[in-house]
């Protein structure tokens, strides 16, 4: 498979580097005013499982809407991309959507999943190799907010087209400057004419958005609070998750859903020997989810060297999938 590189991905040195960076980001984020933590650290093994559960809640429309839309458009997508494509996916997770894409494409050559969670990445890659034995699979542990180095075999293939796949509206977690930086990084992986298939959540009723991030079963709350559990486990911290509460709301001025963890009492938390003081009602800002228009996506794409070649939406205009082409 070229899962023969997989063991090297999980070397102790890499794990140590990621652990150190996580700690640095936690400490620096909690020193800021207001306090914040990067949402990319939601996705340890338990966080990834909880996110899969979120996608199955009745209120969270994004996943089921995108899957239904993909089923409608994939024959057209396959014609746009052509044969023998090298597919690259950021934030691959469990791989539900990529199965549909790989099955629809015309003899795809390779698949490179890139994910920050090593456990989820390797498990998904092994399953996909059994399902698609004729496709080379190159799992890469990486942070999609940074530049990613592709496997050598993929770097040396200049004959076949590349397609970057970024579904789920994960791009909504980026502010406009971060979107431009991300699109620039994606463009660097592609040659002129190569494609970028991008899922983007659209602006809609604030009530629909509120319900999607505050499901009745409390799965999103568990997902948000799991970040404190992870910090406790990895850095011998002493967060009492029962003294924090999930809080999510739509900010119409910024066109984004914000997720926070609210301290319910005045308290002190120790992390790696350092103390952090919380007032009652003080929050840790854990995630933004920006909601876009089709026009704003096209404008951002053009600024970063992409042609906005095609866009599809569901019948209720909840969600959009864009096909961008590197110019």
Walkthrough of the structure:
The chain has 327 residues and is an alpha/beta fold. The chain folds into two domains: 6-38 and 206-290, no CATH class; 61-138 and 151-204 and 292-326, Rossmann fold, CATH 3.40.50. Helix content is 40%, strand content 24%. It is globular and about 60 Å long. It starts with 5 loop residues before the first helix and ends with a strand.
List keywords for this structure.
eight-stranded mixed sheet; 327 residues; alpha/beta; Rossmann fold; 2 domains; four-stranded mixed sheet
Listing every helix as H and every strand as E from the N terminus to the C terminus, the arrangement reads HHEHHEHEHEEHEHEHHEEEEEHEE
Shape: globular
Based on secondary structure, the structural category is alpha/beta
By CATH reckoning, the class of the largest domain would read Alpha Beta
Evaluate the radius of gyration.
20 Å
Under the CATH scheme, which architecture of the largest domain would be assigned?
3-Layer(aba) Sandwich
Q: Output the CATH topology of the largest domain.
A: Rossmann fold
- Distance between the amino and carboxyl termini: 32 Å
Please, how many helices? 11
Number of beta-strand segments = 14
Q: What is the mean pLDDT?
A: 92
CATH superfamily of the largest domain: Vaccinia Virus protein VP39
Strand content: 15-25%
What oligomeric state best describes the polypeptide chains here? single chain
């Amino acid at each position: 498979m070229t899962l023969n590189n997989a063991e090297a991905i999980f070397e102790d040195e890499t794990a140590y580097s990621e652990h150190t960076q996580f700690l640095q980001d936690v400490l620096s984020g909690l020193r800021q005013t207001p306090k914040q933590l990067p949402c990319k650290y939601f996705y340890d093994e338990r966080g990834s499982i909880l996110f899969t559960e979120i996608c199955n809640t009745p209120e969270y429309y994004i996943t089921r809407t995108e899957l239904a839309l993909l089923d409608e458009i994939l024959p057209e997508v396959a014609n746009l991309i052509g044969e023998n494509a090298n597919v690259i996916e950021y934030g691959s997770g469990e791989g539900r959507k990529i199965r549909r894409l790989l099955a629809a494409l015309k003899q795809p050559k390779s698949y490179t999943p890139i994910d920050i969670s090593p456990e989820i990445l390797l498990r998904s890659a092994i399953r996909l190799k059994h399902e698609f034995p004729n496709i080379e699979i190159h799992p890469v542990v990486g942070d999609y907010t940074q530049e990613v180095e592709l496997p050598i075999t993929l770097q040396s293939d200049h004959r076949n087209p590349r397609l970057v796949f970024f579904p789920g509206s994960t791009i909504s977690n980026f502010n406009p400057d971060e979107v431009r930086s991300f699109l620039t990084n994606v463009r660097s992986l592609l040659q002129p004419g190569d494609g970028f298939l991008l899922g983007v959540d659209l602006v809609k009723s604030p009530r629909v958005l509120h319900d999607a991030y505050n499901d009745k079963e409390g799965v999103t709350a568990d997902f948000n609070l799991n970040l404190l559990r992870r910090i406790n486990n990895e850095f011998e911290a002493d967060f009492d998750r029962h003294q924090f509460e999930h809080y999510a709301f739509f900010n119409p001025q910024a066109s984004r859903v914000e997720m926070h963890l609210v301290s319910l009492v005045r308290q002190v938390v120790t992390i790696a020997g350092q103390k952090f003081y919380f007032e009652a009602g003080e929050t840790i800002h854990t995630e933004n989810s920006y909601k876009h228009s089709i026009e704003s996506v096209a404008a951002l794409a053009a600024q970063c060297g992409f042609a906005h070649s095609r866009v599809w939406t569901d019948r209720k205009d909840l969600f959009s999938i864009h096909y961008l082409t590197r110019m």
